[in-house]
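Problem 12. The chain below contains 115 residues. Write out its predicted structure in token notation.
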Amino acid sequence: AWCRRLAEAGYPVRYCPDARVVHHGNQSAGQKPPAWRIHRTHAAKRIYLREHVGPIRGLVHRWIDVLGYALRAGVFSILGLVSRERRAMGARYRTILVEVLRSGHAALRPDRGGA
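Solution.
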């Protein structure tokens, strides 16, 4: 996303294969509940895809995400019958699935007055 924005603004974009970046993910959002972070991440992804790959491909990507999380939630729920750890993973994936589905809500879209 950043390379695209820089290129669109007229800046040169260079590739440096020796460069290393260390990302300490979600540091600024670390104080927020996990469901909030999941929700915001997928809302932002949906907006990015809609703007840069088009509404149809963006929708396809979104449903691939939904199906992937649904499959994981189902598999880990079944495995949870024999393992407490797997049961917890199933619960986490169900939470993610709900938040991914909620991230499509229009109130989160900046063009509709969302945050």
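Discussion. The longest helix spans residues 55-79. Students who got a different answer should revisit the alignment rule from Section 12.3.
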